[in-house]
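Continuing from yesterday's entry. The apo prediction looked reasonable, so today I'm repeating it with zinc ion included to see how the binding region is handled. Same sequence as before; SMILES copied from the compound registry.
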Amino acid sequence: MQEGYYLDPYQTRLDTHVVRHRDGGVVLADTLCYPQGGGQPGDTGTLTLADGTALPIENTRRDPESGDIVHFLPENAQFPPSGTAVTVDIDWARRHRHMRMHTCLHMLSEVLKYEVTSGNLTADSGRLDFNLPEGEELDKDDIEARLNRMVDEDRPVVMKMIPSAELITQPDLIASMALPPPLDKPDVHLVEIQGVSLEPCGGTHVRSTAEVGHMVVRKIENKGKRNKRVVVAFAQQD
Ligand SMILES: [Zn+2]
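Holo prediction written out below.
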């Protein structure tokens, strides 16, 4: 199965066919829908049949057992049988906001170089939780200014796929990453914000930091003695 969301996150339409049904959804021969995971929601969109019937894709998730990407359809929908030709259109406005927010969270984890304990995003906001040294405080205005400086620098964001066997021979590169890359698969997916960071990530990102757009720090919450939650949102809610 080609998983187009990784190879080209800007592709919004794909002609493919139904392979099988699975727990309230359909598995397709190929897809470009991002399956919910890594704090990013699954894609929504439309599945259109040759006769013009349009079925809403309500969510996309990976089946943990088979690894299949399942496109969830409404309960009362008539599921197209296996072999049916379909066109997938993703809800691009929503996905693009996910891509901008996801890229912003990589930038935030560089602005605040602390251990990240969790993260999550929607089309409107994103958050990371950090473990800080005791007594350390965060400055909302400073975080915002540094994020927006990175936006103004218009740095290219590049996806890379490196064979695990090759990466293992570069311990310095591995050591430079904020997270250890998973080396149990043939290839490691990396995202590089040029001049800023290189991290393992299989998610969807925009092409440059300028495309993220200006951000605001909506709030900083205490989630424990050392844990702080930083919530960011788009400055322009268009
Ligand atoms: Zn990412």
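Comparison notes:
- The first helix runs from residue 4 to 7.
- The pocket of zinc ion is lined by residues 102, 106, 191, 201, 203, 205 (CB under 6 Å).
Will overlay with the apo model tomorrow.
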